[in-house]
C-alpha cells in the first residue's frame, strides 16, 4: 500500500521477483548526508606515474575507486527512495485533501437536506418523526434485520406523505399519451401514483416531474419488492447496510423535493 515494492529480473532464469524495501526515511537521509564525507575520506591523492620508457603506459593503482563508486551508488539509491517517498506522501496528502473536501461538501449538502426535510416532515407529516428516529437507530445497528426495518421505515414515510398531501381517491385519473388513454388508480395502495399526481398538480417545471417522478417510481417499486419478500419469508432479497443507507438518502431527497412544492403553498397541507 505504501508503494515500497520493486521488481528484479533474474538474468539467468528470466524470472521476475518482487521485493520491498523497509528502511526508514531517516536512514536514507543520513546515508545521503554522509555520502560526500565518505567519498572525500576515500579519495586518493594525485600521483603522477612516469616511466622512463616512452612506449610504456603505467597506470596508478585503483586505490579506493571501487569504494567511492559503491558509496555513490548507495547514495543515489537512498536519494531515489527519498524522492519516491516524498512523491507518495504528496500524492496521498493531496488525495486525502480532496477526499475530505468532497466529503465535507457532501455532508453539508445532506445535512441541509436532512434539516429541511425533518422540519417539513414535522410540519406536514408529524407522525413520521418517530419513524425517522427509528430509521436512524436501525442504520447504526449491526443486525441485518434492523437494516431491513430501516428500509420498511422509508416506505412507511413515503406512504404517510402520500396520505397527508394526496389522500386516496375512488376515481381514477386518466392519462393520455400518444392518443391512448390509460386509467391511473389513486386508491389506498397506489401511493406512488398519488404522489406523482400531486407533483403533476403542483409543479410547473418541465423537468421536475420526469426526474422526481422516475426516481419516485423506482424507489417505490424497490421498497415494495423488499417488503413483499419479507412478508413472504423470502430470504433471496437481502438488504446490506450500504443499500439501506442509499434508500434512506433517496427517501430524503425525494421527500424533500416533494415537500418543496408545499413551501410556497402551505395551505395544501390541509387538502
Report on this structure.
The protein is mostly helical and 271 residues long. The protein has 2 domains: 5-101, no CATH class; 126-270. It is built from 7 helices and 4 strands. It has helices at 25-41, 65-124, 129-139, 144-165, 191-202, 208-231, 241-263, and strands at 5-9, 16-20, 173-177, 180-184. Strands 1-2 form a two-stranded antiparallel ribbon. A hairpin with a 6-residue loop joins β1 (5-9) and β2. α1 runs antiparallel to α2, α2 (65-124) packs across α7 and α4 (144-165) runs parallel beside α7 (241-263). The longest helix is centred in the middle third of the chain and has 60 residues, at 65-124. 20% of the residues are buried. The model is unreliable at 266-271 (pLDDT under 50).
Amino acid at each position: 500500500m505504501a508503494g515500497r515494492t520493486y521488481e528484479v529480473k533474474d538474468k539467468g532464469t528470466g524470472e521476475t521477483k518482487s521485493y520491498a524495501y523497509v528502511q526508514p526515511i531517516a536512514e536514507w537521509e543520513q546515508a545521503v548526508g554522509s555520502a560526500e564525507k565518505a567519498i572525500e575520506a576515500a579519495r586518493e591523492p594525485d600521483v603522477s606515474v612516469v616511466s622512463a620508457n616512452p612506449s610504456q603506459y603505467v597506470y596508478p593503482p585503483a586505490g579506493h575507486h571501487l569504494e567511492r563508486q559503491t558509496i555513490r551508488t548507495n547514495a543515489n539509491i537512498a536519494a531515489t527512495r527519498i524522492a519516491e517517498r516524498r512523491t507518495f506522501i504528496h500524492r496521498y496528502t493531496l488525495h486525502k485533501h480532496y477526499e475530505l473536501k468532497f466529503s465535507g461538501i457532501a455532508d453539508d449538502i445532506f445535512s441541509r437536506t436532512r434539516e429541511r426535510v425533518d422540519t417539513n416532515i414535522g410540519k406536514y407529516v408529524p407522525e413520521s418523526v418517530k419513524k425517522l428516529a427509528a430509521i436512524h437507530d436501525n442504520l447504526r445497528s449491526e443486525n441485518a434485520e434492523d437494516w431491513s426495518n430501516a428500509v420498511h421505515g422509508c416506505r412507511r414515510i413515503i406512504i404517510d406523505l402520500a396520505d397527508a398531501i394526496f389522500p386516496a381517491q375512488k376515481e381514477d385519473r386518466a392519462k393520455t399519451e400518444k392518443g391512448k388513454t390509460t386509467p391511473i388508480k389513486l386508491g389506498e395502495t397506489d401511493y406512488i401514483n398519488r404522489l406523482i399526481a400531486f407533483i403533476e398538480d403542483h409543479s410547473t417545471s418541465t423537468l421536475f416531474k420526469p426526474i422526481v417522478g422516475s426516481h419516485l417510481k423506482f424507489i417505490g417499486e424497490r421498497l415494495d419488492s423488499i417488503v413483499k419478500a419479507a412478508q413472504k419469508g423470502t430470504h433471496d432479497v437481502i438488504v446490506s447496510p450500504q443499500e439501506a443507507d442509499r434508500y434512506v438518502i433517496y427517501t430524503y431527497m425525494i421527500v424533500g423535493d416533494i415537500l418543496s412544492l408545499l413551501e410556497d403553498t402551505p395551505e395544501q397541507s390541509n387538502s
